Amino acid sequence: MKVEQTIERCRELIAEPLGAIAERWKESHPGGRAVACFPVWSPAEVIHAGGMLPLGLLGAGATVELTHADSRFQSFVCSIAKSSLELGFQGLLKGVDGLVFSNICDVARNLSSIYKRNFPHFHVDYLHLAQNSTSGGVADYMADELRRLARGFEEAFGVRVTEPSLAKSIELYNAIRARIRGLYAFRIAEPQKLSTVELYQILRAATQAPPEEALSRLDDLAAELPAREGRPKDRIRVVVEGAFCEQPPLGLLEVLEEAGCYIVEDDLFLGWRWFTSDVPADGDPFRALGQSYVDRAVPSCTRHEGREPRAKGLIEKVRRSRADAVIFTPPKFCEPALFDFVPMRQGLEREGIPHLLVEFEEKMWTFERTRNEIETFVESMLFD
Amino acid sequence: MPAEVKERQYQGKVHQLSRDMMNAWMAQLARANETGEPTGAIMISGNCVELLRAFDIHPIFPEVTALQNAIRHQSLPLILKAEEVGYSSDNCAYVKADMGLFLSGGMGPGTKMPYPTVTLCNYVGCNVYVKWFEHLAAATGSELFMLDVPFLRTSEPTAADVRYVVKQIEELIAVLERISKKKFDIDKLREILAYSARAEEGYARSKDLCKGSPAPFDSFFDAINMMGPINVLRGTREAADFFDEAVKEFEGMVAEGVGPLSEERFRMVVEGPPPYPYYRSFRNLFTKWGAVAVASTYSTVGGIWEWGFRHDPARPLESIAEQMLTENLTNRSIVARYGQIKRYVEEWKADCLVIHSIKSCRLFSAGQGDMREYFTKELGVPTLLVESDLEDPRYYAEAQLRNRIDAFFESLEHKKLVAA
Ligand code: SF4
Ligand code: SF4
Description:
The complex is a heterodimer. Chain A is α/β, with parallel strands linked by helices.
């Protein structure tokens, strides 16, 4: 399949409600179960190992009007929490059987139990992912936590999550992540051949489809992309940082590129490409996966990293991707992103790396002001 | 409207005693600053202050510093200072006021509040804690220990949760030994925990007395007099003695049939923290209606003692772990909190629920609309939801609050009349 056709297919998948994707999958998997994961990281492997379909629950963008959720969550709460709840109220998750949340922030935490209260027919689990990365007890704890998740699925759905099946699923997701790392490396090398708007759709589609299908699409792309035409433009290279949970509207990414940026690194869909290298497939797979959450993790605003200063990971990213600047894109009201902005900005300033702050909301639909801001920023850098 | 209700100036002993004890603690910190004795920054929620005490490490509570600045109307300049360096208007203002204090040079060597030797993040529920203490450790150059307490996501903590927390407590003890240059003495910890248990007993007993009518104190507004001793000074003989005094005073008031107001007309349960910058004005809005908080969730952030949990000197580390995991408000889900409030409404015989929604604190507030839905629609409990902030005075709109509160109690009064 040609690159353009593959991306078109991704676009179609993203436009479908999550429930519809789950229902369609179930037609060919009678009795199957679908489990949606709220950002940032969830062990999709554990879901897949039980023969279930893992999906990404990523809010509703501008596709639904809030008719119930905004009376449950106040005005100062981020949009993804509200729109994800609204999907439940409007029945758009019909077909999804389970939901997984984790301790990324206080909003996600409360959302998890409110989901369970309002929609008792979902099997809702809440993972406490370790924040102490140096304790001697952390690997055991994480292994036990993933086992607990698996047992919950077994009890709720009558599925079986065995060690061999988990090891297999880990291998499958390792392969997907390796392809994604490949795409990211490709974009760093030749950003003119793969725009971020495209890469975004490819990634998002991988969270809305069976992993086997996602992998074959990623393989097609890996084969086709190098031959693609693309002339370098006069743009600055930027890292986009802050959109690890609520997702920016496609229009915002478009504007960023059109206004003169090559996005060469980002933290979009961070959880679906969490590991910097393959999760080991030998030994106890629960332990391997749990320990990898801590030891092989990408830097994230939602995970405490010991004494590592917050800015270090970002500066490394800038260097590795040969970026000229950072565009901070925290979702409106997102505490983890907004808190980390402070030390990250300080770090960039110490290193003399230019940066710009562009707050967004998933439901935003006019970008003219943002376009002006970015154009001014880009011009100031190009003609410096 | 019936004759206006007034606040009785009863608060004599408990209020004064609490103030004296908190001042003595601040003076100790100032001295520690001069003598170079070790200090440890720690959070209020489900804390393990006893462990610091076992090594004679003076506890610093940045939340208490922040709220004291708010009560003294000094928080806004600090918040603005923090916003100047990039903190967002949407970040918890407790953190901003605290970081603003550092940026203003108001904390640290040479000032009354010392830099912490160790920054002990007891991550009990609130995710902002992690950020706050990361920033605090970076600003002060102090050693950071992240005590990761798994959130209570099953009805009981799992065996793995308990093992993980106990393991970390053991690792923390090694760090504290190094910092304090003292060997860990389990008997000293047991003694401290016995004082804790005595204070917990007294606090629980005081709250229990509020089941009577009139309640002897306001379990939201007056509870802060007790929250200092129970959360900050827990584990000391002074705190244990304080609660003996408090119980005596409250029992006396019950015998006399007097409460904090000249008349108790409405019994309310209050959910959420108070607006510290306008503590008095906010209180007055309820006083005039004769509304007394007979129970509150805020008073349980450090620990829920009213259901019977006590630290156990016979099981020192395990009981510290249990308190952090289950026996405090912040490490439980918001929906579990509905259950806590429901019990208050029933057992403390409240007429209504007042939800004070705090912009800064999403741990408390995110989803309180759902809570209102549950109490009004499913339980039929009259519920009022008002919004402001616990630290940032810019979010306090007195006229709007007054209108909402007046309308709510007017309608409650009407209902009472009709029912009578
Ligand atoms: S966008 Fe930020 S605040 Fe909202 S749920 Fe995600 S991490 Fe939490
Ligand atoms: S979010 Fe709430 S609990 Fe957390 S630090 Fe701020 S005020 Fe305290």
